[in-house]
Predict the 3D structure of the following.
Amino acid sequence: MSSICEDILANGVITITGECKGCDACVKQCPTGAITVNGLGTKHAIDPEKCVNCGRCLVACPFGRIQDVSMVEDVKAAIAAGKTVVVQPAPAVRVALAEAFGAEVGTNAEGKMFSALRELGFTVVYDTLFSADLTIMEEGYELLGRIFKSLGLPGYENAGVLPQFTSCCPGWVRYAELFHPEILPNLSTAKSPMMMLGALIKTYGAKNLGVNPADVYSVAIMPCTAKKFEASRPEFISSGYQDVDAVITTRELAEMIAEAGIDFASLPEGEVDKLLGTGSGAGVIFGATGGVMEAALRTAYAVVSGEELAVLEIDAVRGEGALREATITIPLNADLKAATGAESVDVKVAIVSGVENVEPVIEQINAGTCDYHFIEVMNCPGGCINGGGQPIEHSIF
Ligand code: SF4
Ligand code: SF4
Ligand code: SF4
């Protein structure tokens, strides 16, 4: 493990630096009460024992006095050293990057992003959209196992408990570990898309590139500061090497592109590298709250009913409320009808936008009154499109 990762594990990702004005803007955004206030107008500090590394305070600080640990110099050094530097950009990066360089809001700059990454010297360009599909399938099948167990179907005795929470947001996972360890069995056992692709890059990817995994340097571009903590966790060496060596944010990538003198708007539409670069596209909606839930529900629906889920039925999980809920009725296929004696199963889901809004749900679980089957939690209000690693102003260059 690199020394920067050891430092992140010990001290966290986010620090208040310089001359803090004591204005309290960060305090109002912090979902965990991690910011220590010594009085209005005095310098504030962050308690790493309560911080989930989400960067919501960093985005909120009007004076730019909060910063996240940077791995940019490590990435540049790996490129300069001639390592095989493999990069994976997250779904929410491509649109924010376009906006950072002055494009119309909502523009998808995927092709230009791929070109920019190659100009910066990355050797291989993959895409987290590939492993978003894996997460969808893993979480979808895991949910089905837990539901089948609750229905008493044989063969599912070892499945987990209900409700199942999503596990792809490291801010939420850290929140659960720090403040509600009692509900950890409810979290999906699936790794996040970033960590799934990190492990694949150092194993299957290295083999297919004909490179020794020890010579592969794996970089993730994320809208998220908490991903730096996630990548540093000692659990994520399943490939035998650190699965993701460095995480840089959308904001840092935009700065690298500008610093290198690349005219982003004039770049050609580049291509992603095949093998681990292509996805179904379902992962694109991961960037907004409700996206992970919708994608996993579609998988579960198709497996249980043998049919595709209509767009209209899924509308209930879209939207902007802090806590949204819906019930999806899934017709059972012939085998499941025979096994259960039922025609259909009702799956009740909830979407939590802003990690502090999960508290009423956890209260229900602890009281034994929760009837949800599946709950998506995203630490940042609105999801990763509003993550702590995104460009802070609409157009920063
Ligand atoms: S928002 Fe910035 S200036 Fe204001 S208290 Fe927080 S760190 Fe200090
Ligand atoms: S990073 Fe998130 S949890 Fe940590 S102090 Fe900032 S807002 Fe609070
Ligand atoms: S919502 Fe997205 S950006 Fe925010 S902490 Fe979670 S994964 Fe990171």
Observations:
- The chain has 15 helices and twelve strands.
- Residues 11-68 form a domain with the Alpha-Beta Plaits fold (CATH 3.30.70.20).
- The first strand starts at residue 14 and ends at 16.
